[in-house]
Amino acid sequence: MFKRLKTSLLPLAITAAVFGGVSANAMTLPENRVGGYRHFDAASRPAETSQVPESQQAAAFRCYDTASECSVAAKKAGPLPAGEAPYQLKLFPDEAYNRVGHYGRTPTPQQRASVPAGMEFDHNPTLVQHYYEGANGSLPGFNLTRTERLQHAQSLSSGAAATPAAQRAQGAAAAAYSREQKLLWGLE
User: Fold this and answer.
1) Contacts for 111 with CB less than 8 Å, ≥ 6 apart
2) Distance between CA 1 and CA 89 in Å, rounded?
3) Virtual CA dihedral for 136, 142, 143, 148, nearest 10 degrees?
4) I need a surface site. Which of 8, 33, 119, 139 has the fewest CB within 10 A?
């Protein structure tokens, strides 16, 4: 089973591995994805040659269930939904943004009903920007599962009301941004 680090913790994990001296107890590791994290306490790690009593193992790895080889949160969440592949975090997108293929058909009827008459639902940030950059510190869309991308696109909190003229202008800017990203990442 693959173990994953959250990308926001990757620089800290690399720094700790290279320079040492950073205890995982000094930070809080939020877990909100299936698969989770291991809680490592550098101070309580035994030497490689000694055997650690089980009581100390339980204290050292409070968030990891050694019997089932998965995190406590993953055990509670259960298996991945049918058709979902395990996360494989990527540094760069390996396919170009596809509006319908990646985010489905939006706005939904609920999103249309949430805006006043004469206005349109406007994703903020645009879905193409969400795909390449993420939003509010979250993972970019190319690192999310299809289900997570659909949930984002269909969420009422992913946008607000906009005039049709502003929506068309934003669409033109988003198309230009999409072309730039395809060239930048060599996806054309």
Assistant:
1) 121, 154, 156, 159
2) 14
3) 70
4) 8
C-alpha 97/C-alpha 95 separation (Å) is 7
What three-state secondary structure class fits 121?
strand
Average pLDDT over the chain, rounded to whole? 74
pLDDT at 68: 55
pLDDT tens profile 90-124: 999 999 999 999 999 999 999 999 999 999 999 99
Angstrom CA distances, 150 to 19, 102, 130, stand at 40, 7, 12
CB 126 within 8 A of CB 170: yes
Delimit the domains of the chain by residue range.
10-77, 99-185
The radius of gyration computed from the CA coordinates of the chain, to the nearest angstrom, equals: 21
Question: How far is Cα 155 from Cα 124, in angstroms, rounded to an integer?
Answer: 11
Is there a cis peptide before residue 125, judged by omega within 30 degrees of 0?
A: yes
**pTM of the entire structure?**
0.58
By residue count, the chain amounts to: 188
Residues 6+ apart with CB under 8 A from 184: none
Rounded Cα gap, residues 94 and 54, in angstroms: 44
